[in-house]
Amino acid sequence: MRHLISPLDFSVEELSDLLDLANDIEKNPETYAHKCEGKKLATLFYEPSTRTRLSFEAAMHNLGGNVIGFATADSSSAAKGESVSDTIRIVSCYADICAMRHPKEGAATVASLKSGIPVINAGDGGHQHPTQTLTDLLTIRSLKGRLDHITIGLCGDLKFGRTVHSLINALVRYEDVKFVLISPPELRVPDYIREEVLKGFDFEEVTDLEQAMPKLDILYMTRVQKERFFNEDDYIRMKDCYILDKAKMSLAKEDMLVLHPLPRVNEISVEVDDDPRAAYFKQVQYGVYVRMALILRLLELA
After folding, report:
1. What per-residue string of b and e applies to 186-202 under the rule 16 or more CB within 10 Å gives b?
2. For residue 293, which phi and psi values (nearest 5 degrees)?
3. Is 101 a catalytic residue?
4. Which of 3, 40, 53, 129 is catalytic?
5. Cα gap 123→130, rounded to integer Å
6. Mean pLDDT, 10 residues at a time, the chain of 302 residues
7. What residues form DSSP beta bridges with 205?
8. What angle do CA 148, 151, 290 make, to 5 degrees?
């Protein structure tokens, strides 16, 4: 039995096979419409979510399966003090596979050690968000045709942004990937990312988005996450650091892609939505395909 806790749980070859499966699902959805008949996915979401939770639910329904679960910790026995370990043991009696989001880093790992079913980490605090990373990789590969020989700019909250941390961990395994880390000093990537993950790789840290734009093949925007701040004054001061608009887009390559894990607040102006380089809504659709592929792989149905 396998789990997905980190993007590194799959080798580069396994990731390639998974993305191939996701592309085949996109092209031939009817082939997979009944693969999970009789199977149940449990969605255990201790934090609010729209895209990730509904994407998992849509994925399982598209495969002919069923979904059970809860959308907030308050609507579960966690409100009574039940531990993650006990919850996953109980859920293992009801479902065949589980997707869990939790505010505490490492919660999905704890669950996987006690679970009788495959556990998918749907986000643990500011640590990892591997299925968003799979979505990002599928989007880049499908629209760019490759995952190597690219320059990617990661902009905004690079300190608390688990999507950023997961994506960096995944992309360092590909050849000739250059990273441009764009953030205010207070929201730079954590030291462990800089000193361990990016050690020996081509990266630069800058504060000026306009200066970085012309060199990028991909711009990965993130929101400044209010829920990760202990001090509201700090959040208010930094939430509008970077706003992508038409003027900034005019500095970019004609084939640059703009990605965003969503939700956005105001870091991408709505005027950018009509730009053909804006790929963040396509990214959402790719998320369904890759989660369908992941469910099939972990259940050993494809």
Report:
1. ebbbbeebbeebbeeee
2. -60, -40
3. yes
4. 129
5. 7
6. 94 97 98 98 91 96 97 72 92 98 92 97 84 97 98 92 90 97 90 93 93 97 65 58 90 98 90 98 97 98 95
7. 181
8. 55
Q: Are 129 and 163 in contact (CB under 8 A)?
A: yes
Give the active site residue among 2, 39, 51, 277.
Answer: 51
Neighbours of 61 (CB within 10 A): 16
pTM: 0.91
Catalytic entry in 3, 35, 43, 52 = 52
129 part of the active site:
yes
What pLDDT, on the 0 to 100 scale, is given for residue 93?
A: 98
159 contacts 226 by C-beta, under 8 angstroms? no
264 catalytic? Reply is: no
Considering only CA atoms, which of 247, 22, 40 is closest in space to residue 140? 22
**Alpha-carbon gap, residue 200 to 2, rounded angstroms:** 31
Q: Active site includes 51? A: yes
Residue at token pair 């894990």: 261
Q: Which pair of tokens denotes residue 225?
A: 């996450």
Q: Are strands 150-155 and 119-124 parallel, antiparallel or unpaired?
A: unpaired
What is the Cα–Cα distance from 184 to 298, expressed in whole angstroms? 39
pLDDT of amino acid 251: 97
